[in-house]
Amino acid sequence: VNTTGKPDISREKSAELYAKAKTYFPGGVNSPVRAFKSVYGTPLFIQKGDGSHIWDADGNEFIDFCCSWGPLILGHNNTKVREKVTEVMQNGMSFGAPTALENELAELILKNNKLIEKLRFVSSGTEAVMSAIRLARGYTKRDKILKFEGCYHGHVDALLVKAGSGLVTFGETSSAGVPKSFADETIVVSLNDKDALTKAFEEFKDQIAAIIIEPIPANNGLLLQEKEYLQFLRDICTQNGTLLIFDEVISGFRIGFEGASGYYGIKPDIITYGKIIGGGMPVGAYGASAAIMGNISPDGAVYQAGTLSGNPVAMAAGIAQLSELLRMSFYKDLNNKTEEFRDAVQRFATARNYKFKVFGIGSIFWFAFTDKEYIRKAEDIDASSMEKFKKFHRELINRGIYLGPSGYEVGFISSAHTKTDLEKAKRAIFDSLDLVF
Ligand code: PLP
Question: Where are the alpha helices (DSSP H) in 209-268?
Answer without folding.
Answer: 227-240, 259-264
